[in-house]
Amino acid sequence: MLLNFVRDGVAAMFRGGRSYWLWLGFLSLLVLAGVVAYGIQLNQGLISTGMSDQVTWGFYISNFAFLVGIAAAAVLLVIPAYVFHRKDIKSVVLIGEGLALAAVLSAMLFVIVDLGRPDRMLHLLPFIGRMNWPQSMLAWDVVVLSGYLLLNLGIPFYVHYCHYQQREPNVKAYFPFVILAIFWAISIHTVTAFLFSANTARPFWHVALLGPRFIATAFVSGPALIILVLQVLDRVTRYPVPRSVIQTLALIMTVSLQVSLFFVGVELFTDFYNETAHAASIRYLYFGLDGLASLAPWMWTALLMNLVAVTILTINPLRSQLRFLNIACVLAFVGIWIEKGMGFVVPGFIPTPLGEVFEYSPTAVEVTVSAGIWAFGALVFTLLAKSSIAIDLGDVRASEAADTTLTELRPS
Amino acid sequence: MTKIRNEAIDQGRRRFLGAAAGAGAAVAGTAAGPAWGGSTLMDTMGSFFQDHYKRMSDEEIADAIGRIERRAKRRYGVDIICKDTPPQDDVVFGYALNISKCKGYRDCVSACVRENNLDRDSQMEYIRVLQMEEGTRNLEHSEHYYDPDTVPVEGKYYLPVQCMQCDDPPCVSACPVEATWMEPDGIVVVDYDWCIGCRYCMTACPYQARHFNWREPQIPAEEINPDTNYLGNRPRSKGVVEKCHFCTQRTREGRQPACQEACPTGARIFGNLLDPESEIRYVLEHKAVFRLKEELGTEPKFWYYTD
User: Cα distance from A275 to chain B (closest Cα, Å)?
Assistant: First the structure.
């Protein structure tokens, strides 16, 4: 039975029209390009990236931090669906969990491609390796991300399996895991924030506001992506997406963006009112240091995008129109990606702890590898969503016939 | 003053393997199997399954040393000797640097590069000499790339910075795989064969003291220092982090570190902090000393002072 479920589920992933196959092909090409670029990086070493002893983390870790936020944001569907019993949201919660799974996988890949010795990855495992737990925040991150991956594999697997067998899942059996997943989601992003804020050597990151800022921005970029994805699914599948789900997500996103912009303001005030040496990084970020300011245009663009987005979202008549809402989603998604990615990771290294201003920009290898990972994430999500929807709509279900064929086959 | 955290390091595991065992292993190496990806299949497998330094038995360490020496022979054509010198009892090393005497000649930097087999291609240097504005200790006004041929410059003073061998090292807590730790003699070392190259320790270090091998290190064969130590200056591979280790290959045998010997002005005082008769103890007790970024609580074992 379980084997049939997996077989039918996987088969459903590869049943689709011409445009579906074109989409899969497009993503696969990007993944392939990423693999080729990673091959170059493996061969030459990380010299093929723009990173240096001064700026030791760059585009990869920026995308990692952003994607952990996307993964955590699935909780915004899980909480109303399971805790507040919103039937409309429960109908799409599995899509959210699929998105979380794809995001957490991609986030892990971004860490792996950043390693100088990926062949020694096993050293990160407990027992086989030698995990520096509980001291190292990176060890914590490995633990919480792996746990989150398992939770987002296990729960949807069980629920889909029940749907496949056309029975209601036993809530008592999986509800404890749902509650665990809610706390776990918050923890993955808090731990990721602590990974940075733990560094006393980097005053730009070493602020208590970092955790709350990470959560707030995750609750902007996550819903923005979910809103856009749900509309696409609504259009290309027979899967009904209730309008009320979009509205709830838009409201959460509005409040979160307001809060995160408030946080930006708080940080700007604290750093610039009486400017200390610790404000050097944020000065570099917005205005540049020693005539070097390659991040500043990006950061101002991000700020502008977020301001336009928050204006659209805050004005009710605009937010309730899908056209405007979608513009706000795209702006906020890209805006947060810049702010929380490169705009957050890179200035932590500039100036260096010894006062050197040395800039960073990603190379073609880094950009191609990253595009490959994003495409891989999209591919994973597409396949998961495809089979999830097929099971939910009842297109794929356990049939008596399938079972009988098996029993018939057995004696022969 | 200085805590010695003699964490579960098993002294019994540490031994002098010395030249004899090393040479024996090298002979065995020449007879080993066919070339495979620049090394023999056996060595590649051995490296892959090699355990953490602190978990290896005597035999396993001897095997690892054999691989290190054979690899150096293959890569550079040089017979190196890799020892596994244990820390001495009742010794914790410390450093004091007289910034009134330092004139920024950078002889310490070049001596360190040669002694410790640093990659020449990327101009990796464990010591950074900062040219500072007189009247301020603000590092952001420091010049890292001044011309050492025209020193000393009027109105400037010089501040050499290297690994502070912190007694509470943030890099050690940062490492997710315990590839770096503080030895009983106070030196923070790296197991280059265990490091996964995540560079989180570099992020954690407030002194920019850690360096990464962004590519396979390049050293002219005639410049290789063949006298190497396991937790010290043995050749490294690409993709791992390295740092100043107070020249374990010298100091654990009672010699001075290369930077101290090279200094033409006598600005550098290195010694045993636990020995009340040592010169470094004299400096700490009689001079007005300071440490860099003391407010971060890292407890550096590297002091600066003036005449």
Answer: 14
